[in-house]
Amino acid sequence: MLLVLHIISALTSLGLTTLNMVYPSAKRQQTANVLIASTLTTGTYLVYLHPATLKQSCISGLVFICVSLVEAAIARKRLSTIQISN
């Protein structure tokens, strides 16, 4: 069940951060940050439960975090530009 929650959280956060890059929104940014944090938390717990899959999990997790953080940073920058110009 935790693995399903982890996968849904990861896919939703990637979709939301991608959407937020195109259409920046402060509320969407906060929601994406919560989903990224929950994915990181559940992933850490899954690695703790099954340490044999640590190497593959860490590589996948690092790719996810890098992509999510880059998308979130781009969205945050676009959102701040929009707020300043209004």
Question: What is the topological layout?
Answer:
Layout: H1 2-22, H2 26-49, H3 54-85
Helix pairs in contact: 1-2, 1-3, 2-3
Q: Whole-number average pLDDT?
A: 86
Residue runs with pLDDT of under 50 for 5 or more positions: none
Major sheet description: none
Oligomer: single chain
Q: Quote the beta fraction.
A: under 5%
Number of domains: 1
Decide which structural class fits the backbone.
mainly alpha
The radius of gyration is 14 Å
User: What is the CA–CA distance across the termini?
Assistant: 45 Å
Could you state the order of secondary-structure elements as H and E? Answer: HHH
Provide a count of the helices.
3
* Shape category: elongated
Tally the beta strands: 0
| Proportion of residues in helical segments | over 70%
Task: Describe the structure in your own words.
With 86 residues, the chain is mainly α. It has one domain (2-85). It is built from 3 helices and no strands. The mean pLDDT is 86.
Task: Spell out the key features of this protein.
86 residues, mainly alpha, elongated
